[in-house]
Amino acid sequence: MSSNIEIIKRCGWCGKEFVARKTSTEYCSHRCSGLAYKERKRQQKLEAFKIEYVKSSDEVTEIEKLEFLSPTQLCQLLGISRATIYRYFADNAITTVQFKGKTLIRRKDVDSLFEDGHKYLKRPKKKSEPITEFYTSKDVQEKYGISNSGLYEIAKRENWPKTQQRGKTLWSRKHVDAYFAKQQPSDEISEWYTAAEIQARYGMSLSAIYCLVSKEAIPKKKVGAATFYSKYHFDLAKGIAEPKEPEYYTYPEAMEKYGLTRDQLHHYLKYHNITRVKKGKYTHILRSELDNLLKSPEI
């Protein structure tokens, strides 16, 4: 039921007078109410930013008084990332000391970098190499077993360089090979299902198989016109196989499991020569070697 009360009020956003039906009404319309809400949220964010800025400024002021700094404190002082700091360490641009598993940097050494007057060296632009090797559309379809529409869909998504010659579309061989090399499944997978074998074992339709493969990201490979699906990953998705323990830790996983800081973990890996593998931009640590090093002592 609507109220019979009529109160003349002034809109809190646009300032116009309006007739309110409730004493709590502050705005003349839904639009003014929405705009006022957005402005309140904006002001809240600004206040939060100011508090954070003052807090970080106070932290930097305290850090400036220290004679020895940790990598994290040096990041705050210089306003750069940990990755950049560790690149400087690796290039010996900043002198560091390993003290009982902790990395320390003398403030005086950091100040001397600016006092010595290092000149800024502009990095030369990389010259792009001309593309001289190409596939025709037919070559790509035959080599990698994809349809013409599939080829154009991938090419558009991956932005493959192309050119036209005598009515034929030519695709950069380097870009095509690099894309399909990334799509190849791991060499560790040795057992595969065909779609027919999956249908016989699990009684699934083809559409159900394709849906599960897409949803669970099950590795697959094409040999000619035939498609094969990883047996282990398919059985795992169906709840038949037990998940294998990963062979490697990531840095965050190892730090969380053993309660270490990044600097402490890095010290153990370097001092004890633990096997590390670079996968893209991430470093992976061999699980068996780290577990053996940090396991509980036995008598």
Order of helices and strands: EEHEHHEEHEHHEEHEHHEEHEHHEEH
What share of the residues lie within helices? 40-55%
Outline, from the CA principal axes? extended
Uncertain runs are none
Q: Number of DSSP helices?
A: 13
Please report the total strand number as a whole number: 14
- What is the percentage of strand-forming residues? 15-25%
Largest sheet: 3 strands, antiparallel
* Helix/sheet category: alpha+beta
The end-to-end span amounts to 81 Å
Q: Order of strands in the sheet with the most strands? A: 3-5-4
Mean pLDDT: 83
Q: What Rg is obtained from the alpha carbons, in whole angstroms?
A: 31 Å
List the helices and strands and how they pair.
Elements: E1 7-10, E2 17-20, H1 30-64, E3 68-69, H2 71-78, H3 82-90, E4 97-99, E5 102-106, H4 107-115, E6 134-136, H5 137-144, H6 148-158, E7 162-165, E8 168-172, H7 173-183, E9 192-194, H8 195-202, H9 206-216, E10 220-223, E11 226-230, H10 231-237, E12 248-250, H11 251-258, H12 262-271, E13 276-279, E14 282-286, H13 287-294
Antiparallel strand pairs: 1-2, 3-5, 4-5, 6-8, 7-8, 9-11, 10-11, 12-14, 13-14
Helix pairs in contact: 1-2
Nutshell version of this structure?
48% of the residues lie in helices and 18% in strands. The protein has 13 helices and 14 strands.
Question: Could you explain how this protein is built, in words?
Answer:
- The protein has 299 residues and is an alpha+beta fold.
- The chain is 48% helix and 18% strand.
- It has 13 helices and 14 strands.
- The strands form five sheets. A three-stranded antiparallel beta sheet has the order 3-5-4. A three-stranded antiparallel beta sheet has the order 6-8-7. Strands 9-11-10 form a three-stranded antiparallel beta sheet.
- α1 crosses α2.
- It is extended.
- The protein starts with 6 loop residues before the first strand and ends in a 5-residue tail after the last helix.
